[in-house]
Amino acid sequence: MRVTHRILIATTNRDKLREIRELLGDLPITLLTLDDVAAIAPPEETGLTFADNARLKAEYYAAHAQLPTVAEDSGLVIDALNGEPGVHSARFLRPDATYPERFAEIYRRLDEQPDAPRTARFVCAVTVVAAGAVLFETIGTVEGEIADAPRGSAGFGYDPIFYYPPYGMTLAEVSQDAKLAVAHRGKAFRALAEWLRHSAV
Ligand code: IMP
User: Which residue CA neighbors atom 7 of ligand 1 most closely?
Assistant: First the structure.
């Protein structure tokens, strides 16, 4: 059953959009962004989990744009910091903080517990809503560690401090393709692409 020819990707984050276009680009579907629809004020992301926020955003934007909508919520979970920055990743420290400032704060907090494990993961929750119904939900994760120091200039956000052991590098030291092959957004959007392929033909 064909769900749609057009789907709204409800994010204003250019870095995420670049990755999402790469991951969904082969589908016979027109990807619209929030730039293609009348301006919609962003909702408050009040959810306690990535999945809550992805659903909240998908329901909100689908209702406002009257289009089938994909929303995602993602972030970095650091075990030694009780899961912070977590759902607050985009606002961690201050909404306008730079990433070097955020990294410094993360290292400051980790230095307070030198014996704690440095394990961390990126999480990406994706939800599809159309006509008021949740049609698809998935979560992608990638396990890694907080690097000894930030390294690399590819990627975005927290990539320079996310060390991925199988590559022996941070996700900011590898190509976009290498990142998407293993990372949270790659996993979640490949599952979405698979679902769209089967429901859209
Ligand atoms: P959201 O827009 O509320 O989902 O916030 C996502 C935030 O998590 C981004 O602004 C980044 O700070 C962080 N984040 C999510 N995915 C990635 C990634 O792939 N690399 C680095 N940081 C990420």
Answer: 90
Counting from 1 in the atom list of ligand 1, the atom nearest the Cα of 75 is 8
Structure tokens at 170: 């941070």
Q: Residues 3-28: pLDDT tens digits?
A: 558 999 999 999 999 999 999 989 98
Upstream peptide bond of 85 is cis (omega within 30 degrees of 0):
yes
How would residue 199 be classed by pLDDT, with cut points 50, 70 and 90? confident
Give the helix/strand (H/E) hosting 169. strand 169-170
Task: Report residues whose beta carbon is within 6 angstroms of any ligand 1 atom.
Answer: 13, 45, 73-76, 89-90, 122, 155-159, 183, 185
Question: What's the 74 CA to ligand 1 centre distance in angstroms?
Answer: 5
Residue 198: predicted pLDDT: 87
90 CA to middle of ligand 1, Å? 6
Distances (CA, A) of 18 to 1, 28, 105, 166: 28, 18, 28, 24
Residues 6 or more apart in contact with residue 149 via CB below 8 angstroms: none
Q: What is the rounded average pLDDT of the residues 125-147?
A: 97
Do residues 74 and 185 make contact, with C-beta atoms less than 8 angstroms apart? yes
Catalytically active residues, by annotation: 73
pLDDT at residue 120 above 80? yes
How many angstroms separate the Cα of 161 from the Cα of each of 20, 94, 102, 104, 146?
Answer: 22, 18, 10, 10, 6
